[in-house]
Amino acid sequence: MNKVRGVQTRQLLTATLAIGFIGRAAFLLLTPTFYAPDERPHFEYVKYLAEQHSLPVSTTATDEYFQPPLYYLLLTPFYSLAHALSLRDSITVRILRAFSILLWGITVLLAFKFLECLSVDDAFVKIFVVGMIALLPTFTFLSSVINNDNLILPIGAAILWLLVRPEPSLKNSALIGILLGLGLLTKLTAIVYAPLIALTLLMRFRKTGAPLVLLHLALSIIPALIIWSPWALRAWGLYGSLSGMSGTVPFEWGTAIPVIWGELGEINKTFWAVSGEYNNVSSFYPIVGKLLFYLSLAGLLYGLLFKRERLISLAREDAAVMLASALAILINLVLILILLYHQGQGRYLFPLLIPIALLMAVGLRVFPASGAANSRIHVSAFFITYVLSFICFSLAVFRA
């Protein structure tokens, strides 16, 4: 029976990943050119690097030239090749979009490494986490178009994997620092990994003494600062801020409460199921995701209050990274609301997509029904139905 269940789990995972790839390929080919959030400005950044061989300077609130350059530098060879072949922009855009799908594939592989190091053997939890990474509708759309958020996820997945490796070392911590620096050279939202790294290391090494903890923290942070500091100094010199965002609205606490409430609602909506140039294609699909989130949150609260032993048995050695992840998610929300005032978008939570999926899976696993023999099939079927129907709906709207 265990062997049969194992084969079935592998089949479900394979089907989930196959649908994820097919869905992304459909969005890549059929989404109209530049009909994705900021896709034209991202494309113009790559074009500038390839043709001018220098870093651009942001002059308007609508360009993306203030962004760190790593993602765009990686795309430059593909643009140059397309340009040398005299391809139309519509074809060049789809070539650059394909790089996003490659990054998604790397994220999936690293997510499996992460789950393996956490010894996640529960089929329900594993299929749920993979389902979120492969078939979350908004992420399926975003990871098939040109967007620098797509490089943050594999970098973050690599950081998570290194954080939970069973035999941590000083070399491991230094690699984490290098990856964090590369993340900051991709997009400033990678800063959310800093508290996640610090909290996880503190919890993992709390019994080894303060000097060793501080050494691991230093090796995880100092390389990142060294890698990022030249770009940070450039941004400060040009724009007077580390982010370089010239269009940010200042945060005013006098109007904070109603605005924060509205932004949280927008974050929750756009995290789950939106597409289109302005996140304008959604229908009822975000509501489905919201209900799933509320159910998982109820499961976590229920577990903490009434099924603590059950919750602990699910977490086991994962407790450190899960608690650190929960705190990092809260910190990320605060950063989004304060630093990106009036710009609450669910994709800013995608750097923490893997921990979010893991926490939600554990919350749902607390409920007895999740232990049923067919529960993993239901989870896989839910995500496949959710994303396929959303893709069909989105493409129909695009054609209209």
Key attributes of the depicted protein:
400 residues; mainly alpha; 16 helices
* Number of continuous helical runs: 16
- What is the overall pLDDT average? 87
Name the helix and strand elements from N-terminus to C-terminus, one letter apiece.
HHHHHHHHHHHHHHHH
Rg, Cα atoms, Å: 21 Å
Based on the structure, what is the oligomeric state of the protein chains? single chain
Q: How does the helix and strand content classify structurally?
A: mainly alpha
Proportion in helices = over 70%
Report the β-strand fraction as a percent range: under 5%
Shape: globular
Count of folded domains? 1
Low-confidence stretches: none
Characterize the main sheet.
none
How many beta-strand segments? 0
Tell me the span between the first and last alpha carbons.
50 Å
Question: Explain this structure to me?
Answer:
The chain starts with a helix and ends with a helix. Helix content is 71%, strand content 0%. The chain is mainly alpha-helical and 400 residues long. It has one domain (2-244, 251-399). The longest helix has 30 residues, at 210-239. The model has no long low-confidence stretch (mean pLDDT 87). It has 16 helices and no strands. The chain has helices spanning 2-30, 39-52, 70-84, 89-117, 123-135, 137-142, 149-163, 170-184, 193-204, 210-239, 256-272, 285-306, 308-315, 319-339, 353-365, 375-399. Helix 2 crosses helix 3 and helix 5 (123-135) packs antiparallel against helix 15 (353-365).
